[in-house]
Amino acid sequence: MNNLSNQYLFVGASTPHNKPYYKPDKHISYFHQLCAYKDIKTNKFQARSLKLDENFNILSEKIRYLNADQCKKLMALSKDTELQIYPTNTINNVGYPNCDDIIKSQSELLR
After folding, report:
1. In a domain, 15, yes or no
2. Residue predicted with more confidence, 104 or 37
């Protein structure tokens, strides 16, 4: 039995009721990148601190030089998802965090 007389209308995503709408809550999060070894010139550890908004945009970036006590304090105060330690002596060898790291730092479940 051939039923070719039926016509189907597929509504595209361009109609207003089908448009996806996502608006995250406004919040600020931080992500820290820390070198595991001291810089040869300054004899201090380099760290990069990033301030991020809810859309993963970098609002500010600070590169700091920390002594051993300041590193311990940063590690104690930062959550596991907000701090990443890299086996290098200069922060210039470290790229910015990827989306996975940023999403983990902003996760409600991991806070």
Report:
1. no
2. 37
